[in-house]
Amino acid sequence: MIICTSICTNYLPKAMVLAASVKRVNPARKFLLCLTEKELPDEAKSFPDFDHAVLAKDLGFPNPERYLIRYSIVEASTAVKGQIFRYLFKQFPEETKFVYLDPDIFVYSDLSELDALLDHEEIVLTPHLLTPGNLDMELSCMNHGIYNLGFLAVRRSVEAERFINWWCERLDFACYDDMGNGIFTDQKWIDLAPALFKAFILKNPGYNVATWNLLEREIENRQGTLHANGAPIRFIHFSGFDSNTFFWAVEQWVKNDKVLVKSLGEAYSRALQELGEARLRQTPWSYDTLDNGEKLDAVVRKRFRDHGFLKDAPVYQMTLRTIQKAYADGNGRWVKIRRKLSGTWKRLRRRFFQTRKLQSLREVNYNLEEIAQERDFIHFRGWAFFPGQSATGNEILLLLSPAGGEYLTIETTPVKRPDVSEYFVHWDLDDAGFTATLEKTRIREKFKDGQTLSITLLLKTKTGSVLQKTNHSVHV
Fold first, then answer.
1. Which of 5, 46, 47, 237 is the most buried (most CB within 10 A)?
2. Strand 183-184 relative to strand 225-228: parallel, antiparallel, unpaired?
3. Domains of the chain (ranges plus CATH)?
């Protein structure tokens, strides 16, 4: 059995800890590291628990630079995973069992059930959840995917190769963090796998223990061996560890022994620090800059993503000016058309709001906690978020309108609200809060005196914009 992982240099200590944990429980397991960087760092070359180390550009992509320039650091390290399996199939013809583990995993005991399972199963997946009840996480799975791709195991077979080839093609097409279009990196595609291929869903609670399933798994130490719901824990997935999500989830969701589970996180943190986490996690991603040192931004990456220009060019050897010129020359007409369509959409949207009542299109969780009027100002305070989604990056607007009339838009100021995360038992709602102050002169300039204005929330999320009528109003 070969176990592999995919990283950029900032995650190298995590991959080292993973490899060491694999070797500790079974020294016979082979470990392969794939690094999506331009060069292999010395720390990766010399680490004894890496049996093999390969750069993503050497996996067999026809044009690796053109492939990688479309992706952010997280997208890129997941977009190469299908090609890693192709590489393993080709480079290790004597091996029949291959397992991918995310770098932020720690293996506590040998994967014996999986080894036996791969004697007769060809593709093995683990779902995020095994039992119903955590509605927040169920909704999250609808966005991020049913199965967690921090783990994937395959046995060499015609069916497995057919699956890997399909996955590679889909990742080549789109491995983006774009939930608004139904895509979440490499993971969301795998929702289709059990229907399209012969995939086995492993429901052993000792596999892939993580923040999202802590609520459903009782973790305990039985005579020196960790168990989850009575099954020996094979590995824990410390996803979101850098943002302190793990310890937050322990406090919120672990029912039986918080001290034990917290101690596992503390031990994992110490292991990372011993291998240079504080220094290496600051390493810039080499594919984030062109060879001349110019930094790539999301706009340039999106141009490569959306259009097929410079298909075979050595893109990292070019300059930003050359890339931008090629974009303008090759797609100038398209840009003009898009700008025209954008203007048309704005006019249609304005007409919609002016001629129709504002309507709630989807349910938003919200609370307008305060509407305080002074002589010249109105102050608003509250929170809002869409169920099942992170509040990070959301924009909240307040729309004031008389019945059937035009609307007045009020921009809000984000306010941190960790109490919202705590109340709804969701790790990422701190950014749901807002405040706003409106000068009454703006209302008088737009509306007649003595009108009652209803308040509608406009919540702009990563997946689109949502209108939510409220039962609140102001009278000026």
1. 5
2. unpaired
3. 2-283 (3.90.550.10), 300-355 (no CATH), 365-475 (2.60.40.2440)
For 126-191, where are the alpha helices, taking DSSP H only?
135-144, 158-173
Q: Which residues pair with 227 in a beta bridge?
A: 220, 232
* CA dihedral of residues 418, 420, 424, 427 (deg, nearest 10): -30
Task: State how far the alpha carbon of 155 is from the alpha carbons of 15, 23, 28, 186, 470, in Å.
Answer: 23, 21, 18, 20, 54
Nearest Cα to 241, choosing from 468, 17, 460, 469? 17
DSSP tag of 15: H
**Centroid of chain to Cα 276:** 25
Provide the edge-to-edge strand list for the sheet that holds 105-107: 105-107, 235-237, 209-210
d(CA 332, CA 358): 37
Phi-psi region of 36 (alpha: psi -120 to 50; beta: other; left: phi over 0): beta
Find the helix packing angle between 320-355 and 298-306, rounded to 10°: 90
Task: Going residue by residue through the chain, which has 476 residues, state the pLDDT in tens, using 9 for 90 and above.
Answer: 999 999 999 999 999 999 999 999 999 999 999 999 999 999 999 999 999 999 999 999 988 888 888 899 999 999 999 999 999 999 999 999 999 999 999 999 999 999 999 999 999 999 999 999 878 888 889 989 999 999 999 999 999 999 999 999 999 888 988 888 888 999 999 999 999 999 999 999 999 999 999 999 999 999 999 999 999 999 999 998 888 889 988 988 898 899 999 999 999 999 999 999 999 999 999 999 988 888 887 777 877 776 655 556 677 887 877 776 665 544 433 333 334 444 544 454 454 444 333 333 346 888 898 898 888 899 999 999 887 778 888 999 999 888 656 788 999 999 998 878 776 666 578 889 999 999 988 888 888 777 888 898 998 887 777 888 888 888 87
Which DSSP helix (H) or strand (E) runs through 344? helix 320-355
- The closest alpha carbon to 123, from 79, 161, 94, belongs to 161
Strand arrangement, sheet containing 151-155: 52-55, 30-35, 2-7, 97-101, 151-155, 123-125, 199-201
pTM metric for this prediction? 0.70
CB 355 within 8 A of CB 466: no
